[in-house]
Design a protein that fits this description.
- By secondary structure, the chain is α/β, with parallel strands linked by helices.
- The relative contact order is 0.07.
- It is elongated.
- It has four domains: 113 residues; 106 residues, DNA Primase, Chain A (Alpha-Beta Complex), CATH 3.90.580.10; 85 residues; 124 residues, Rossmann fold, CATH 3.40.50.450.
- The chain is built from 20 helices and 15 strands.
- Helix 11 runs antiparallel to helix 12.
- The chain binds zinc ion.
- The site of zinc ion (ZN) has 8 residues, from loops.
Length: 470
């Protein structure tokens, strides 16, 4: 969303009408000085970081004070970056000052005090630290007036003395307001006022709570000086599954239901929560059912799940991919091993006549980081069940060709599923897929060159989302 107001271009990064309204007010507050302003962008959903561009060679000595006043007058900000040519750009420190008297006395911070944090980081902190969680360290909720399910919290105000509950938090919006003393703001402002600290200290403390403290980078004129934070590789589905199997309890599932909008799906899954609470061996497979369904739905839920996992288990999750899930179930089969290896793609198919199909599968695997390994070689040369179990243990994904209903393939599929290995069933004949496996979304293919090419393409896509691209 963007519009021109009194000759100034206004843009809201998140297309928020309320941002545009505030920027219009800012232009009004600037009065005649707004003639020097080319554009204003509001760069944050709730925190109101602003970027203001001054027209080339339109510098005016009154601009710093006027912009600062305007920023406070419209309700405060988390930093204003002003760009002007001839080295006249400057930053204004975050300010939620509530009175214009404060604004009148306002001084532009000296250069060494400049500290404007990346709006993206501020947003991520707001996402991870619920205002209600933070405030509950100081306040006692009025349970009759509050509606927790709607994120509507009421309590006696921590900023002024009172017996009634006029302090209100709108958790989805991340804002508080006291109807008694008019205190208002977001998580940063709340912490500043509770602890008597300044904005940058509050960012550092909340970043720590959110587990984002090593991502603090400054934003603004000196942005180039700050080295980019290396981002860890995004989690792939198998890593997500391993973490969930290892770490999740019932509450985590209910939380991700809320976060992703998949509550109904999670509650209605016939086995997921039940197998969790009973420690049943099919639990990892049920977790995988859920996350592959989320991935396939392409509704953004898988990304929300990832950031949930990031926020809850960030310090542990890299290590968690090495954990042994349900090792007891594995030991019952007489197979001892250290932990899931996840370093190949296991291919289970009947003997004989499947060489061209295997070639297509191999090519699909070559688009990923992992090589294909065919299991029927093992069956051919020996009947050592341990070899098969070891192969499945090594498999990050198991591809099972159900054509002809080969019983070895079904056996392998059953173990793979119970151990929480993603299974991709493929078949030339839909009738070969048993009814209770149809929810696995098998790939149907024709055994001719065109059909195998389609299979290869479909498999490559699925495999890449499971284990990552090469
Ligand atoms: Zn109050």
């Amino acid at each position: 969303m963007g519009e021109e107001y009194k000759g100034v271009l206004l843009q809201s990064r998140y297309d928020l009408k309320s941002d545009i309204v505030r920027m219009r007010e800012m232009v009004d507050w600037l009065g005649d000085l707004s003639e020097n302003v080319e554009s204003i962008i509001c760069d944050s959903k709730l925190g109101h970081c602003y970027g203001i561009v001054i027209k080339p060679d339109h510098w005016h000595e009154g601009l710093p004070a006027a912009i600062r006043t305007a920023g406070i007058a419209i309700g405060g900000h988390n930093g204003i970056l002003v760009e002007a040519n001839r080295g006249r750009g400057f930053n204004i420190d975050p300010d939620w000052g509530e009175t214009l008297e404060v604004a009148a006395e306002a001084r532009i911070a000296p250069r060494e005090d400049r500290m404007i944090f990346s709006p993206v980081l501020l947003d991520r902190i707001r996402e991870k630290v619920a205002l209600s969680d933070l405030a509950s360290r100081w306040v006692t909720w009025d349970t009759r007036k509050s509606n927790f399910a709607r994120g509507d919290y009421w309590a006696p105000c921590p900023f002024h003395k009172e017996a009634s509950a006029s302090f209100h938090i709108d958790d989805p919006k991340g804002y508080y307001y006291c109807f008694g003393c008019q205190a208002k703001g977001d998580v940063f402002k709340f912490l500043c006022d509770m602890r008597g600290i300044d904005f940058s200290q509050s960012v550092k403390q909340l970043a720590f709570i959110a587990g984002l403290d090593d991502e603090i980078t400054l934003y603004g004129a000196n942005q180039q000086d700050v080295p980019a934070t290396p981002q860890p590789d995004p989690l792939n589905l198998i890593q997500i599954k391993d973490i969930m199997v290892d770490k999740f309890d019932q509450e985590n599932f209910l939380e991700i239901g809320v976060v992703t909008g998949w509550t109904n799906h999670i509650r209605r899954h016939p086995r997921l929560l039940r197998s969790l609470s009973w420690g049943d061996p099919d639990y990892p497979g049920n977790v995988l059912d859920l996350i592959t369904a989320m991935d396939e739905a392409q509704d953004g839920s898988i990304d929300k799940l990832k950031s949930y996992i990031d926020s809850k288990f960030s310090s542990e999750y890299r290590a968690a991919t090495q954990t042994t899930a349900f090792s007891a179930a594995k030991k019952n089969l007489g197979y001892q091993f250290e932990h899931p290896r996840n370093d190949i793609i296991g291919v289970m198919m009947p003997f004989g006549g499947f060489a061209p199909v295997y070639e297509a599968i191999k090519s699909a695997c070559e688009t990923t980081q992992l090589p294909a390994k065919r299991a029927d070689e093992v069956w051919n040369h020996s009947v050592l069940i341990n070899d098969i179990l070891e192969l499945i243990n090594h498999s990050a994904v198991v591809i099972c060709d159900l054509t002809g209903r080969n019983e070895n393939v079904f056996y392998e599929l059953g173990i793979a599923h119970a151990w929480g290995k993603p299974v991709i069933p493929i078949t030339q004949n839909k009738d070969d897929v048993p009814f209770d496996l149809r929810h696995h979304r098998y790939l149907h293919y024709h055994n001719n060159s065109e059909g195998r090419q389609t299979l290869q393409d479909d498999l490559a896509r699925k495999l890449q989302s499971l284990v990552g691209k090469r």
